[in-house]
Amino acid sequence: MKSSEFAQVPALDVDHVSHRYGARVALNDVSLTVRQSSFTVLLGLNGAGKSTLFSLITRLYAIRSGKIRIFGHDVASEPGAALSKLGVVFQSRALDIDISVRQNLLYHAALHGIGSRRANELIAQVLDRVTMADRAEDRVGNLSIGQMRRIEIARALLHQPRLLLLDEPTVGLDIKARADILDHVRRLSTEQGIGVLWATHLIDEAGAGDDVVVLHKGSVLADGAISDVVGKSGGADLRDAFYRLTGNADQGALESAG
Fold it and tell me: Does residue 179 belong to any structural domain of this protein?
């Protein structure tokens, strides 16, 4: 594939994906794309299907209906090629708090088949990228929740992916820590050319230059640039657009954590 053709390939292409838990429909014919070097907000209330979608993208669940491609590679039929380009930060904490930051990252590097010498080079790079270079030898349990999140982002970047998924990454963080994490990841997208899918129920985590996908009760109700989604809905802003699209009466459900 020529470089000009590759530049047009989406970082993530979710094509008519559905998923059930028994009789309950979790995702209903979901399609969305994440462009290369873009920051896309997957916005939905708790229970909208965001975590189910992430589980399908990462192959924690088998894809039974539809297709998911990462840089053109089918997750089901080409899992190695697809997942090698993917980094993930799950909602639940996944670091070993009893060992050091470096030990956590070395273990992750080994899982990806990265030798210790190269791993230490990459660890230095990713820790610098998330401004945690001075904490490499610290025990993870001594870090704040916000600092742990930065380390989890560093770990997700260790094998140099081109697509980064983050599932409610700011849950439990204070306002400053939330803003810091958002700023870090947006800079990664801009400066490193990484496609980002950021799942959240917090309306103020979507910025003016972002793409947005509104997911509600397992269905995509709108997607595109925020200005386009707001304009097509007839709303005054993204919050108003969300309520118009979903018909959600509980306007306290989609919070801005301020």
Answer: yes
Of 27-31, 90-94, 142-146, 180-184, give the lowest mean pLDDT range.
90-94
- CA-CA distance, 129 to 252, in Å (whole number)? 36
Measured in whole angstroms, the distance separating CA 30 from the mean position of its chain's CA atoms is 17
Choosing from 116, 140, 160, the residue where a domain stops is: 160
CB atoms within 10 A of CB 59: 15
7 vs 162, higher pLDDT: 162
Percentage of residues in the chain having pLDDT higher than 90: 80
The answer to whether 192 and 156 have CB atoms below 8 angstroms apart is no
Reduced to 3 states (helix: H, G, I; strand: E, B; else coil), residue 235 is: coil
Same domain, 147 and 202: no
Half-sphere exposure of 209 (CA within 13 A, CB side): 7
Residue with tokens 């270079």: 133
